[in-house]
Amino acid sequence: MIVLILLWVAPGWGAPLTLSGVESEVLAELNFARTEPVRYAKEVLEPMRRYYRNGEIVDPPWRKARPGLIQVVETQEGEAALEEAITAMKRAKPAPALTPSYGLTLAARDYREEQAKQARIGHIGRNGSTPADRISRYGQWRELAGENLFYGDADRMIGRFVVMALIIDDGVPDRGHRQAIMEPRYRRVGIGFGTHPLYGYLCVQKFAAEFFDTP
After folding, report:
1. Which one-letter DSSP state was computed for residue 51?
2. pTM as predicted
3. Which long-range contacts link 125-132 to residues 24+ away (Cβ below 8 Å)?
4. CA-CA distance, 149 to 176, in Å (whole number)?
5. φ and ψ at 55, to 5 degrees?
6. What is the mean pLDDT of residues 16-33?
7. How confident is the model at residue 15 (pLDDT cuts 50, 70, 90)?
8. Measured in Å, how far apart are the chain's first and last C-alpha atoms?
9. Residue 21: which residues within 8 A CB-CB, separation 6 or more?
10. How far is CA 143 from the centre of its chain?
11. Which backbone phi and psi does 59 adopt, to 5 degrees?
């Protein structure tokens, strides 16, 4: 299985918002990591040590057991990335919980659908759209905004897998996805989750310090 993760950095009307089951799981995991980083390191990251062997993840917990089959996930950095994430989260200061945004969620879902239809990856969308362009279609952001993209596949505990992979950030030298998740200035989030023809699933996360929905 290949996991690909990409990052971009750059008062609403109160419209009703319903997150899907997995989107709700992702939101809960984001807020678990943000508000209780030390506990997240101990309860989520440290138990992953048992699955790492010689730079690979063997029979990972997000995969259902298949009799007679050993499931292996290749990594770029091996256990070093996991250990670095554990240390970083234990040192991290808690950040405020994120509140889901109607406009940011629409932007996230739209981009997930666009990429799925066109089998695309990356932060530059159809006709050259940027994350800022897509967020601005649904409202106005202030101070800070960002976009995380997760591509990967899982059989279960999908929301936990998405956030854990972003926090470990294997193969990303600056750990930009973890930085986005733990950025204390972010207060609003939009989440779009669904299938992707190349990688199984795509989860788009849109962050903003402030976001005002377009009426």
Report:
1. G
2. 0.89
3. 130/8, 130/10, 131/8, 131/10, 131/206, 132/10
4. 11
5. 80, 5
6. 93
7. low
8. 42
9. none
10. 21
11. 50, 60
